[in-house]
Amino acid sequence: MNLSLVPVGPIDQNLFESLKEYLESIGFQVAIAKRISIPQEAYSKKRNQYLVFPFIGMVDHLKGHHLLITDVDLYTPRLNFIFGYGPGPNAIISIARLKGDLLKERTIKEAVHELGHVFQLRHCSNARCVMYFSNCLADTDYKQKEFCSKCQKLFSLKLKLEQ
Which of 41, 105, 114, 162 is catalytic? Predict the structure, then answer.
């Protein structure tokens, strides 16, 4: 399965390389795309955050699957913040709230989680599964970067159907 990693705004290249390596280890063929600009129309002065939908809209016209990565804080109207959003065929994650010593690990977890949504996986009740809903950073830190056995079966099936 081909996947393009798209930096939105300035992102450390080393983070992309680590993410690329992990995603390739679980079955994706990954390319790192050219950086695109943060959509300023997404910014909310009232919230001091960025609405997620204009980001996804920037790649909706492109063929294939794209995972956007940004360092600005994202939100949807019903939530205070989001780590990511994966409506399919594209997804986005924000590293704004993932920073710290565990940035690389957290980025991988959120990327895999959103890609799971791209392939129609739902949230899992297993708190160790990468598809568990992270309500806070502690949830992200607790879960593993892998799917539980049930979610892995579904993900593998969906991935095969896409090829």
Answer: 114
